[in-house]
Amino acid sequence: MPARAPRESLVQPKNKRLTEDHAVTESEAEDPNPRATKRRKIETPRKPRRVVATQETAVADTSVTRSRRAPRQSDAVEVADDGHDSPVPEPTSKPERRSARRNSTAPHDPGNGAVKELQKSLLQKEMSLKRDRQTLEGETKQLDKREKALQKKELAFERSVLQLEEKTTAVKDREQAARKRELGLKTQETEIEKRTSELRKREQEVSDRAVVAKMIRTEEFLAELEAKWQCALCCDVMAHPYSLSPAGCGHIYCSLCILKWFFTNLCDGCGGWCKILECPLCRTALVKIPGAIPRPMYSLPFTPARAADERITEMIDILRGPVPAGPSKPSGIKGGKEFVFVITDMNVPYIAMFCPRIALQILTTVEDERRCVVWWPVGRN
Q1: Would you call 241 helix, strand, or coil by DSSP?
Q2: 89 lies in some domain
Q3: Where is the composition biased (Polar residues) (predicted)?
Q4: Phi/psi at 197 (nearest 5 deg)?
């Protein structure tokens, strides 16, 4: 049998444990951790709740419970004996200690139920926290995606802003260039207006000069017509001039006037020209007209004066001005082939009434420009 230890040696470690527990409770009171406060509230009853506090700290894995030491077998015996003033029993054998430990843990069933409820609540909270974390992670991912999309949109917006700025600068440059062009065009318009005004003044001066020159020229033409191209029989400007035979004198008269003069010299007795005809101006004897028919070409007393006709028509056209477009002139009047008057008994009564170009019924019986076939002056019966 082992010797018993003195009672003082058993009481001293008990007092030491009490002091240590008191120090731990004071440190837990000073600690602001809520879990420590829960543990302290649970540990207020000494006998049953000291074991509950150890189980709670083992489940929660806090720093304070890890630092504390695990309860010993001797501690359980001392806690069970705490609060009784009975003398300290003598140490017994090992089976007695185990029974004492079982007896100390047996009456703590309500504390274990509270621990289980706390564990369930903690597990539920952990699950809820995990769910919250998952939801937060999903929300953070969505927020990251939104941020990336917003960044892309911001970049696109900045690019569009830069493009708009470039376009605005280009438009401003174009506007400036257009304004410069407008100024240049305005200056050109002013110059053109000045030139047009100068040209109008010059045109007016030229037109005035042309009018003056035309008036002078008309006066000259009129003077020339009156002086050179006036018929001696009618005292007017010659119309379709004809000249007497160049072998005689070559004076020029109007065709109608010379025809009248020629047919007025017919003889009433013989019906021909038995007398010698003379020029009305210079009294030069003309070629004697033979009586046999057909008469030869050289016996014709007059011929058309083409040079005089062209000059007279030119001056008249200049004085008259431009003629509007109309029907073409009949052939033989001007610029046509050579022709000869063929006088018959049908047109003799109308000689004094109409223009010789129309009334005498000019017939183109000329084969060559300078050769006349025949002419038939018909006398009165």
Answers
A1: strand
A2: yes
A3: 54-65
A4: -65, -40
For the chain, give the number of residues. 381
- Please give the angle made by the CA atoms of 293, 306 and 339, to the nearest 5 degrees: 40
Cβ atoms of 313 and 301 within 8 Å: the answer is no
Under a CB-based contact definition with an 8 Å cutoff, are residues 252 and 241 in contact? yes
Instruction: Give a yes or no: residue 155 inside a domain.
Output: no
Whether pLDDT at 119 is above 80:
yes
Whether 212 is covered by a domain: the verdict is: no
Separation between Cα atoms, residue 78 and residue 17, nearest integer Å:
9
pLDDT tens, position by position, 328-377: 444 434 443 333 444 443 433 333 333 333 333 333 333 333 333 333 33
Q: The domain containing residue 74 runs over which residues?
A: 7-107
- Tell me the C-alpha distance between 47 and 79, whole Å: 6
Tell me if 179 is assigned to some domain: no
- The count of other CB atoms within 10 Å of the CB of residue 174 is 10
In the chain, how many domains are there? Answer: 2
User: How far is the CA of 17 from the CAs of 11, 50, 240, in angstroms?
Assistant: 10, 13, 170
Q: Which of 59, 83, 107 is the last residue of a domain?
A: 107
* Residue 109: band (very low, low, confident or very high) from pLDDT cuts 50, 70, 90: low
> Which has more confidence, 259 or 191?
191
> 69 or 192: which carries more pLDDT confidence?
192
Q: Residue 253 in contact with residue 218, Cβ under 8 Å?
A: no
Residue carrying the six token digits 């000259």: 220
